[in-house]
Design a protein that fits this description.
Elements (H helix, E strand, L loop, with lengths): L9 H4 L3 H5 L7 H15 L9 H22 L2 H21 L7 H7 L6 H15 L7 H20 L2 H4 L20 H8 L2 H14 L3 H14 L4 H12 L4 H14 L4 H6 L32
Helix pairs in contact: 3-4, 5-8, 6-8, 7-8, 11-12, 12-13, 13-14
Amino acid sequence: MLNGSFPSDWIQRFSDPYAVLGVAITADDRRVLKRYRAVAKLLHPDAFAHAPAESRNFASQLFARIVNPSYQKLKQEKSRAESSALLRLQVRRLCREGPLKPKSDRAQQLMVHPATAVDIFYEQAIAELAELQYEPLTHFDPITVEINELNLVYLQLKMGDMVVREKRTGLVAAVEAKPINFTPTAASQEAATESYARRHYRRAQEYAKKANWQQAVQELKDAIKLEPDQSEFHALLGYVYLHQNLTGMATVYCRQALKLNPKQPLALKYANKVGINPEQPEPAKDDPGNKRGLFGMFRTKP
């Protein structure tokens, strides 16, 4: 691959911009930009100062002809939506031809994952592959192909039986072109319609269950950035900081949770531990969204 020439078919072959950058389809503009900068640093000529000329040339072409155009497609929400739509069309086309049959172990595992765990498994798999995608450059081809496969399977699961119900025409009967056997549950349908902030919050809960505090903090910050008026987001972030012995930060977020909703259960449970008197909360705002409550693991006992 690194013989100084750039494969002529790569521009068409690597048309999935999410796979090229190594980001999940659920990534927002901040994560896309962060990943783009990381890849740009890896492919910068300075990183190849002591490498053979052909490697340096290959990295420059890879960045200019594949990576940068992919970023242009993902850097704004509108263009990301268009890219996702094209991938969904690809899924429908593939399912008309027959069941999706992924080759990689990760994609095969994703296909059989419970609906409630699909998002977590998918994003963790993307993150693991992204760590290896550009180091060394010989990894780019196989790993990008694997990420694309994960993207297609993930979209197919999220689309559920929509591809089954599509009207098919032509000589091949519809019964001969079934997609993979997957019936979306109520949980998967709800996940498909929930907001990006709520997805971050749900992932943070999963990370907190596993005591993966740093990942939980990042997810919650993303959630709060998108929907800053959700008291449960602030309460859970206070809980996470408290378990890292960062009492000052825990106080800030528990206080904000009680300001938004004086009856927020998780914030009330830990208020005394962070030096807050729940009987004298700051002026609160109505938070109708909080009626949804926290998952069972964070609810206080009666």
